Amino acid sequence: MQKRILLVDNDVDFLETRSELLERSGLTVFQASSAEEGERILQRNWIHVAIIDLRLRDDNDPRDTSGLNLAKAAQYRSVPKIILTRYPSYEYVREALGPMLEGLPPAVDFLDKREGVEAITEAIERVYRDYLRINGQTQIEVHEGLPLFYLVNLIEPELDSDSVIDRSNELEDLFRRLFYGARQVTLSRLVARQEQRTTLLVFVFSPDGAESHYLVKCGLRQAVHKEAANYTHLVPPVSSGRPTIKAKQTETIHFGAVAYTLTGGNPEEMTPLGRFYQDNSKEQVTRLLTYLFSACLAPWHTRNRFRDTQKRLADYLQEWLQLAGDTLDPERFGLRVQNLCQKALAAGFAEVTYTPTQLIFHRVDHSSVTYFNPVGRIANMQFSDGPVLGGTVYCQLNADGILVDRQAYPWLIDYSRVTRGPLVYDFVKLESVIKFELLSDPGIPARHEMEERLLSVSRLDQKVDSAGLNPEIQKAIEAINHLRHCAARVVGPEFEPYREGLWWYALHQLTQYDPAIQYPQRWLLCYFHSLLSVVMLYQNLAKNIEPDLPEEALKSLWIDEDNSEVWVESQRVELAPGEYDLLLVLYRHANRLCTRQEISQELYRTDYGLETEDAINTTMTRLRRKIEPDPRRPRYIATVRGRGYKLDLRR
Fold it and tell me: φ and ψ at 406, to 5 degrees?
């Protein structure tokens, strides 16, 4: 192992002479003549030990402690530091060598610069022996297809080639530090990849040849540290079952690692949830779900429960799923949906007519089904104001967040999103993952029928009929049936909060679609399925939002004359007084011609002429812009050339 030292000193002569002497002894030395330059080197490079002059700005200023300030920087706490100065004092020593809440103290040694290079090399040896804890004799083996530079690229894909080489050395030392004392560490396979993190199966061999295996989460230091903190502070204490236990944790400048043991299990015989679902029968999948919610997650969902009457379910999910700001801007979101519809048509698996107020799905048998287009309302949706039942939520019930053994027993392996919030989320997310990620072959007609059946029940504990469906759809519905029954025992049988959770997650899935990217057809199918789910769930939920609206308000145009409100296809439309009055005249004479003379008399109490002609034309243009799905091809208000207008409500 090449020893890598950073020497920071504002005395350039001292810096160069000491660096030369240290390099003669076999060390690799990085030089910095200021705190800023030292920090840049630490940010870019992997450093074992930093030797920092106490005064980096003015040697004659007793108040200059810029070197000590650099040593105290939290982001470099994993690097042992030696403070070097010609002006040692008790106060500086006490501050430098004092304890920290986490990691090493600001400095592990304090040297007088007048002691010579031998004192520095001896101090470096002590630091390597007592503090660095990187065993240079540990052999790091990687299986083919899992080189260290590949892992670095997974964790930090934007690095340049020189940085990748340096980070690869740092990652190697990370494993030597994590398994200090091991004779050999073998990186066996990549289990899962998350943002800024990877999960690896690692075998460790002790000097006497004993073998042990770990599941190691390694990645950017901050991301791994956060996940480890979640495990420590939020994961319920072990009470039963076969839990995942945090065994070891360490960090370097840029990376962090946590080693977990899977009590009673062998990771070599385990597969991620997604693969297990694909490869096993519906009976095995049901068995997995039973274990998952009765043995693994039951302690989570029953511990530290609360009922939140101030914050709505929508508030939680919009925050968790990052559905805020420009993400749900109606214009941008509408363009996203239109593009997805065009791509689906080009791929040949769906034909949709898109209008601002409708989405018409054309079936292969030449029939069609029409849904309300919720794009214009998604930014301000409010489904329910009821209290939220909360507790500790895993939040990572996805294809890679769980490992499953041959007996269908699951282990939780990703603690990055553990939090306290709505308990319904764990169930909603897993149902959504089954529908959008784990289905592979069924096309849109089969998925549409599945969604219709999933929405046909009114309670979570009602069984959804899967008879006569595609076998893969049957398997998904049977899994979802069991999942919903588990949810009913935890959050109650009411379907509305669960259904709302499904809507927000489907919306989140849809926001991940990027019109600028070309997707494989399977991915495009999943995104289109999420659109289908959004519009079908919206129609189902809208009945509860506006339960007193008549059918005309939901499917066509309706005027509530008592309250002067106009509804078009479930959406309330704000009209100016003149626009409302004109529409009301046509509405009271719906489905028949209303001449310009009649309109002029009812609106303006005068005969039709040039003045009223201009007023009617201008008002009609504004009115059509607000109520017509496509003002260029009016659906509701037809012009009868030379005579007047007709409001058609018979469709």
Answer: -70, -20
Q: Which pLDDT band holds residue 98 (cuts at 50, 70, 90)?
A: low
Q: Helix, strand or coil for residue 2? A: coil
Dist. CA 12–CA 8, nearest whole Å: 10
As a whole number of angstroms, the distance between CA 440 and CA 453 comes to 19
3-state helix, strand, coil in the chain (%, to 5): 45, 20, 35
pTM of the model: 0.80
Give the pLDDT confidence of 139-163 residue by residue, as tens digits: 999 987 789 999 999 999 999 998 9
Using CB atoms within 10 Å of the CB of residue 502, give its burial: 0 to 12 exposed, 13 to 18 middle, 19+ buried: buried
Tracing tokens 């259904």 back to the chain, one arrives at: 499
Q: Are 79 and 73 in contact (CB under 8 A)?
A: no
Residue type, 632: R
Q: How far is CA 50 from each of CA 25, 69, 76, 468, 561, rounded to the nearest angstrom?
A: 17, 13, 10, 69, 78
What amino acid is encoded at 131 in this protein?
A: Y
Instruction: Give first-to-last CA distance, the chain, whole Å.
Output: 79
Helix (H, G, I), strand (E, B) or coil at 172: helix
pLDDT tens column, 613-641: 889 999 999 999 888 877 888 889 999 98
Q: Among 605, 389, 635, 614, which Cα is nearest to 494's? A: 389
Please give the structure tokens belonging to residue 588: 């009271």
Burial 206-225 (b: 16+ CB within 10 A, else e): eeeeeeebbbbbbbbbebbb
Q: In sequence order, what are the residues at sequence separation of 6 or more whose Cβ sits closer than 8 angstroms to the Cβ of residue 326?
A: 332
